[in-house]
């Protein structure tokens, strides 16, 4: 790393801030509150600006280049989203302001709820959860609350397919419930027979099932209707992991497929900066029977204070709400961006998002699958998973291919996930990339496969052209150094 | 890839071997190779009683975290504390210094339900396809 830490740039007495002259009598902090040992960096304004500019130049972002990180939907984030969420009427609100003074913000939240209801096919939406996994926890707690409300306290099992995002079993465990893993069949779907057996065996204890559709293999489950019917027959509820909603926009609605609750990743599907670039937001949509359990508050029209066309929006608590899951009202800045994105595209535009995302993924898959085997060779949805190893270069692994892609100027795909595919490379092109970009990426992957055979050390030592070379992941995992200490 | 001829194997790739009245248990060479560099092992407590197929710990590598499953039911009598400092022993000597737990089996006959070396080799070949 060529850039020192800001602490290493420190020189006593330098300061990047100029405070205005004191216009009140000086007052010393109480002696007990003064620390002598706080090593805050002391740098000039210019040092500070250069330091962070250097770091930003080393950063890789979707504004810099192609970012096919599977399951993360690293699409382009239109800049108009940024303009609108920074309008003073949004950016300078205080959460304690009276409802009369924030009607514009409540309008945006109300209509975002309405749009998400329509897109997902749900009866109600709460915008509270602050990220995808937070939405999962919210949804599973709602499912559990529903079962308790029906007097079914013995229900404490959630079914999770072996292709699931790792957050699904983690959420189940966090909710105090037991996970039963369901295997996949030879076409990458949930194994219906295994699901039937699990429902028979655990039916009385079934809270429900968590399912991502399309799943993490990028495949639309061919039996999704049978799955939701089966779980419902045994008194369970269906949780939808909406991480892959980008494939479905305007084409299929999870509510229509039998899902009872689903989280949306506003930061993925609805284009707000994420992955170190901004906060997430994981609103939850619910079917009729779960709507009363949504986290509080949600935005509704207030019939009393509405005067003719002059609608008054207000915060309401659903009657059986599981309560608050976030302080104040959720990630409002992200909501304003997502609202803008939906309004800019409109219904027809959102459908095109899904169509182009699926087309791009299939185009890319068809260009590389002769070289990078695809374990479930079907038409994919918005992403696909291939295997990053070659029989004639056995010492080259998915990790080496990923690192070598950095030298070609691309962000590597997600690797070693899902766990059911050996040496997995999970590639999600998104709809915002041109054919030229997809071709450059495919060419790079094919070239890397040749390099693997001709000169595998080139891959083992990659990246060669990055701010840092190959990092020692084993040492990083075993010897955690979480704090800089002066030498 | 090595397969210890004296051990028996579970489909989840744990091995079990008699040592006196106790069973010594670890993960196979194939398992450690698929996981790659092991960086952390979560061990059970001595005295824990587990059924067959219960999860008794976790092996974490740079790629993934995987549950460990009991090849037979029993009571844990010892855990390999050296793994706390040196989890790489599982990669280096999966059948010897990289053992994970010892336990007294509740149903010694369950040993016969596990695959012998030959059956495990065939199982791996089939999985590879």
Name of the top-level CATH class of chain B: Mainly Beta
| Name given to the CATH homologous superfamily of chain B | RNA polymerase II/Efflux pump adaptor protein, barrel-sandwich hybrid domain
Oligomer description: heterodimer
Count the strands of chain B? 9
How many strands, what sense, and barrel or not for the largest sheet of chain A? 7 strands, mixed
Supply the number of helical segments of chain B. Answer: 4
Q: Which residues of chain B form runs of ≥5 with pLDDT under 50?
A: none
Task: Give the CATH architecture of chain B.
Answer: Beta Barrel
Q: How much helix, percentage-wise, in residues of chain B?
A: 10-25%
Shape of chain A: globular
What is the number of helical segments of chain A per DSSP (H or I, 4+ residues)?
16
Helix-strand topology string of chain A:
HHHHEHEHEHEHEHEHEHEEHEHEEHHH
Q: What name does the CATH topology of chain B carry?
A: OB fold (Dihydrolipoamide Acetyltransferase, E2P)
Distance between the termini of chain B: 17 Å
User: What is the CA-atom radius of gyration of chain B, in angstroms?
Assistant: 13 Å
Strand-pairing-aware structural class of chain A:
alpha/beta
Assign a percent range to the helix content of chain A. Answer: 25-40%
Tell me the structural class of chain B.
alpha+beta
Number of domain units of chain B: 1
Question: What would you note in describing this structure?
Answer:
The complex is a heterodimer of chains A (487) and B (129). Chain A is α/β, with parallel strands linked by helices and 487 residues long. Chain A has 3 domains: 1-57, no CATH class; 79-342, Aspartate Aminotransferase, domain 2 (3-Layer(aba) Sandwich), CATH 3.40.640; 348-476, Aspartate Aminotransferase, domain 1. Helix content of chain A is 37%, strand content 10%. Chain A has helices spanning 45-58, 79-85, 88-91, 103-120, 132-149, 167-174, 192-202, 224-233, 254-257, 266-269, 288-291, 332-368, 398-407, 435-454, 456-460, 473-478; strands at 124-126, 157-161, 178-182, 206-212, 237-242, 261-264, 284-286, 298-301, 313-316, 384-387, 414-415, 424-427. Chain A is globular, with a radius of gyration of 25 Å. The two termini of chain A are 17 Å apart. The mean pLDDT of chain A is 95. In chain B, 21% of the residues lie in helices and 34% in strands. The interface between A and B is small, with 8 and 10 residues.
